[in-house]
Amino acid sequence: MTDSDVVVEINELTKRYDEFTALDSLTMQVGKGQILGFIGPNGAGKTTTIRILVGLSKPTSGSARIAGADCLTESRKIKRLVGYMPDDFGRYNNMRVSEYLDFFGAAYGIGRSARNKRVDEVLEIAGATHMKDLFVDALSRGMQQRVAIARTLMHDPQVLILDEPANGLDPQARIDMRFMLLRLAEMGKTLIVTSHILPELARVCDLVAMITKGKLRAFGTLDDIMKDIQQRRTFELLLLKDEQVKRTADLVTKWLDQQSAAETLGKSDVTGAEAETMVRFSTSLSDEALAPLLTHLIQQGEVVAQFREVATDLEDAFLSVASGGDHQPQFKASAALPKTADAGAGA
Amino acid sequence: MNPVIQREFFGILRSPRSLVMLFVLTVVFSVAVLMRWPSDASADLSGLQSMEVFRIFGYGLLAGVMFLVPAFPAVSIVNEKNDGTLELLLNSPLSAGSIYFGKISGVLLFSVLVLLSSLPASAACYAMGGIAFGSGLGLLYLVLFLLVIQYATLGMLVSSYAQTSDAAVRITYSAVFALFFITLIPRAFMQFTGDWGVFKVVGDWIRFLSPLPAIMEIMGQSDVASAGLKESSTTLGFIVVTIITSVLFAAKTLSRLNYRIFDQSRAQGVITDDQELSTRVARRFLYVVDPQRRKAGIPWFLNPVMVKEFRCRRFGRMQWLLRLIAFCAVVSMVLTSMTALGVKGLGVTNIGALLVVLQVMLVVILTPSLASGLISGELDSGGWALLRMTPMSARQVVTGKILSVIWTLVLVLMATVPGYVMMIMIQPTMVVEVQMVLICLAWTAAYVLAVSAAVGGMFRSTAVSTTMSYVVVIALFLLPMIVWLRRDAPFGRDTVEIALMSNPVGAALSELETPGFETYNLLPAAWWVAAVISAVMFFVLGVQVWRLTRPD
What is the ipTM of this complex? Predict the structure, then answer.
């Protein structure tokens, strides 16, 4: 990605509240037409980052730029460039959807005739044309999310920052939301989307940023992150009887410890679930090193019904990164950037 | 113990505001009594001195009940409904009766604490002698306790209908204010017009809804709106009416504490433009401005926030404003035309005074409800962050909001101009006085707007900002009148004059030479005071807005 393709540029962004560090040297870049999935547990620093980007909060140090405009010093430009959809809808009672959008259009200085046209356009993009005459305070959560997207699009911003857009939506509404996000990216908009519903993000994001305790733990394309995560794979052993579980778990633990010590790898995690007659373990051993394990178990008299690798998804990746805590190696933002030609491919 | 009582009562007590309130009340009552405590060694056998102290203390308690009690019941059901906890309560084995009883008991227990905070002062009052226990102190506490029950049941009834907590607070305080003052007007009006037979009886019963005549009777004063003769005991009337209304309020609220409270379909967003031709034609005749017609966009020359404010208010839509204006115009014309028709004893100045009082009441009721939530309403709804993200400056946002209040007030005040014009036509020499009165009313509106907006802007929750704005505004208008009521003793002429200068209402009444106000020279000092206070309040609001628009 060339410098001209970079739309959102965050550099060493830090935010401290007295002793508490909400954001710690966050660095990342997002290109034009890309969708960034911003993932982290509650209180990780996602909203702090977003608030700095939209000019509602001031960083302690570092900088953030959107389409070349400084988020702190050029707030008027930022307001034109960014469409922000906070988690809170921003409900005005007794207003119809068309009046609500008309108000925000007027607040952005759009002329009356252009505004009327724009209201119809954004409602069409958001799939909310039928809601035009409904009262804003009578909308369901899913309807509100659509209207909020429409409101965010009123002034045709380059960058959309959406805080939990899939929150509280039913499965159909989530699918619709996913298509809407892809459509916006196709229109050349850059999107930063936070969500707790990780499978939803995995399907639409070109880039993923994982943040915990204010630190960026992983950043890059989903494939890149998966490759890193999959250095440590998870396997399951399905047994026949529940009394086998503890015995097998002990055997596996001992065997893995011996192998890991020989190959100077980290300790493996082994857990047993008697109810499922299953032993689950994660390891960094290669296929060649791991292959004798099944033979070993059979030699010890254990009957194994299945021995399989568990496919890793974004949720596992996130859990793996999140459980890594402060010891997790941090990813280099620039190294993880995707090629712009591939933008949208992950979707 | 009913778990709802425990939660409600301790919930109120846990709030630091409640504790501060109780502490301040105890100190205020004690200081008031101490200030009037006899400094010489001679005994006042007539009991006049102790009665003076008793009156200050009694009116103070009445004001305390009026200001503090309605806020708690007003939000008790609507908050639970909006937070989703009312569904949990109704789904629990608790009956609707025990939920209601628990909630109202919590409020009543707190109100009893408010009354108890006055006990040291009342004991001192009683110790001074000259005040009967049963027909004096005891009766005062009985009346106030019944008033607390009435306000609590009223607040909960409003709360069961309201959709938001600030609407509940607004409507409850308006209703309390109406019960307190407006119920006195019909009887006061008949005082001038003579005996109207059955209407007089109705007027009497309506007057019993107000606690003021009963309290004045207990204080040994001729009560307001009485005909000078003691026709019947207002205290007994008040007790009967209060018990009946409280039972009715409670029964109505109880009948709503079930599925009915949630059983509302979402508004379907019907639009007249999409209706059949016959419906469209019928609505064209019924409405001057049809609320269901599709609106054109906001024109470029109007502040978008101002338009948004009008559209967001349930009663801010044009058809409601037109109705309010028409009502004000009709009332002012009727009152003035009665003078023209030579109704017995009704002079132009009396009508003028009545118009002024009605207008001030309207301003005091209307303005805090419009202006107190200018900032907190946005913070509550999440709209503030969205407004900050638009290119509009904070100044534009606040100007739009204030303009929306100013326009409403201007329209309402202008609606009464025909009444004043008729007054001038009847008595052409009154041109200057009417001009002065209109200026006083304009200043009153600006003053109430500034105070409501500034006080409301200090709080993040709309319900709290509305409550505090009402308390401050009503106090600012009521206290000078209480001082004026006690103009012979204990307050001297200078004290009363200074108190009346604190807002422009006294000046308006004085200009009209209303009986009791004609001796005070309040202009232009009252205008200056209003101007300075309004300027300071707008400055405070500006600082608050500036603070809220800075990046965190």
Answer: 0.72
